[in-house]
Specification:
Order of helices and strands: HHHHHHHHH
Distance between the termini: 56 Å
Largest sheet: none
Strand content: under 5%
Helix content: 55-70%
Shape: globular
Bound molecules: fe (ii) ion
CATH architecture: Orthogonal Bundle
Number of helices: 9
CATH class: Mainly Alpha
Number of domains: 1
Number of strands: 0
Radius of gyration: 17 Å
Length: about 190
């Protein structure tokens, strides 16, 4: 069977979630003037985080489907409302509501996905939850690929954790070392 390219009625539940997220962006009534990031960037970012989540999930043996879903929805509050304030906790509530409405996910799956969304901004926390850590790392790596300065507005205490994750996940995926980020991390760790 040829790939469906998201047409037709035969989409998997992960694909239905991804389609729903894209449709939230396409249907957004929040103008860019009231957004902290544009609809276009959110579309690029959610797609990018899904792809990186797929790579990390394979590498770490994390459930691929849950990784795709959590990645697709990790910034769902920003996608729907436009702002980053408390967006992780607020996004988890939106995600829970949607996942329950589909009737296709059990309680344990919804708990795992929403935990990953709710905790994804806590880059300074290193938990034992594989899905939670995967979403944080995929988020950091995707953002870092848009330019080295993307996180520079964050306070140093937080920033070092973003850079630490980027350095580690690049190494894990066998990517070349990024001198600029490693030097920045070294300087930030020196200020401890
Ligand atoms: Fe976020
Ligand atoms: Fe994000």
């Amino acid at each position: 069977m040829p790939y469906h390219h998201f047409t037709g009625d035969n989409l998997s539940r992960s694909e239905k979630v991804q389609l729903w997220v894209v449709n939230r962006l396409l249907a957004s009534q929040v103008p860019d003037g009231r957004r902290e990031s544009s609809v276009q960037w959110e579309l690029k970012h959610s797609s990018g985080v899904i792809q990186i989540a797929r790579l990390i999930a394979q590498k770490r043996g994390v459930d691929l489907e849950l990784a795709e879903i959590a990645a697709a929805m990790h910034d769902i509050h920003v996608i729907m409302e436009g702002g980053y304030t408390e967006h992780a906790a607020r996004g988890a509530i939106i995600a829970r509501r949607f996942l329950e409405e589909t009737g296709q996910f059990d309680k344990s799956e919804i708990r795992k996905i929403t935990a990953a969304i709710k905790n994804h901004s806590n880059k300074h926390e290193y938990s034992k939850d594989g899905l939670v850590e995967l979403v944080k790392d995929a988020d950091c790596l995707d953002c870092s690929l848009y330019g080295d300065g993307i996180y520079e507005d964050k306070p140093p205490e937080q920033l070092k954790h973003y850079y630490r994750r980027i350095v580690r996940v690049r190494e894990e995926l066998g990517l070349p070392r990024k001198k600029q980020i490693e030097e920045r991390l070294k300087a930030l760790e020196g200020t401890r």
